[in-house]
Design goal:
This protein is of the alpha/beta class. It is built from 5 helices and 5 strands. α1 runs parallel beside α5 and α3 runs parallel beside α4. The longest helix has 21 residues. The radius of gyration is 15 Å and the shape is globular.
């Protein structure tokens, strides 16, 4: 999670919402890929941290199926990312802060609980949740403050 938090900070430094993700091979502990939010800079609405990390892992491994790997992400995945996680066959998802507004794993549609979801990873939330939430809160607090001064 510390690597995901570093990626989230890099996203914040680039003016992106601070979310970071890491794909890990739990058998070896190897970090397969790291992703940071970048939809603004890449002009790509799908460039969430999870998608960036999944794409890099698939490219690196030469396979779109990432069965058995773990995705660690600083924020509860949205519906788009949950769908990609399912299609990639990720074995486990660990996330930091919950997202009551945009999350789709323990909030909103609860994507992995739907009968149309064909692959359901193990999910665990709350990993370094305070650190993840603090990064997001600080980022948006600074943006609101900057907007009020403009």
């Amino acid at each position: 999670m510390r690597i995901a938090l570093q990626a989230a900070q890099a996203a914040a430094d680039a003016g992106e919402t601070p979310v970071g993700a890491v794909v890990v091979d739990p058998a070896t502990g190897e970090v397969v890929a790291v992703g940071a939010n970048q939809p603004i800079g890449s002009h790509d609405p799908t460039a969430h941290a999870e998608i960036v990390a999944l794409r890099e892992a698939a490219r690196k491994l030469g396979n779109y199926r990432l069965t058995g790997l773990t995705l660690v992400v600083t924020l509860e995945p949205c519906a788009m990312c949950a769908g990609a996680i399912s299609h990639a066959r990720i074995g486990r998802v660990l996330f930091g802060a919950e997202d009551p507004k945009g999350g789709a794993v323990v909030h909103g549609p609860r994507f992995f609980e739907q009968p149309t979801c064909h692959w359901r990873p193990a999910v665990e939330g709350g990993l370094m949740a305070q650190e993840s939430a603090a990064l997001l809160q600080g980022f948006f607090r600074a943006r609101r403050k900057k907007g009020a001064q403009a």
